[in-house]
Specification:
Chain lengths: 98, 169
Amino acid sequence: MIQDYLILSIILFCIGILGVVSRRNVLIIFMSIELMLNAANLAFITFSRFHESMDGHVLVMMVMAVAAAEAALALAVVILLHKHKGKLDSNVFSLLKG
Amino acid sequence: MFADWLFTGFSILSVLGAIGLVTFRHPMNGAMSLVITLISLAGLYALLSAKLIFAIQLIVYAGAIMSLILFIIMFLNVQTDDLPEEKDRFLYLIGGGVVLAPVFFFLKKIVQSLPASETTIVGNGFGGVKEVGLLLFKDWLLPFEIVSILLLVALIGAVVLAGKRRVSK
């Protein structure tokens, strides 16, 4: 039973990595990062259920707070980039290329 | 058993939502698929008897964060012409899948080498608000305060970034 939940978590994490490496839309990339955070949360909850300790629940709450902070900052950056370039393509955003 | 059927249904829904996220072209469709994934993950948390996290996942993730993302997508008014041309994205997806397959099988092997643990019945208060709250404010007090500082910094940073007005052009 524990293996099923963990394998589902691995599958979701791999799909998240796939979204980050293969898509060029910044919003899709951002949502894939959220998907990876959720996969990690599922692993936390699974382990805390099968070890019967609730530390995993607290850690999941921390991860959710970090995800909320990340969402606020990342969306502000997306708005700025969209204002500057008028595009959502991550290939266009090469300001640090030098 | 009924819980096994629920697990199968929720896991299939979550994987389908994740696949929809990485394959749909328009970010609005992708965001809706991600909402399906998040809600079915909340169902899985309920199956794992994490009551508080179930509620928080529905309210904070599927409610607050996703509505923020949807608001931004609508605010930017993304048309189909504005989207990056991703004609060969299925090629990239297949290539990424080939690269990620060894990682997946490696992690799967690790997981399957874990000792098999039987599903035990947890106590009545497992994962409730009172128990998690006691743990949060006793053992995890310092990380909790640090997270509050992090949220404050993120708030100020978002205001500074998004509210910038260019004075001279």
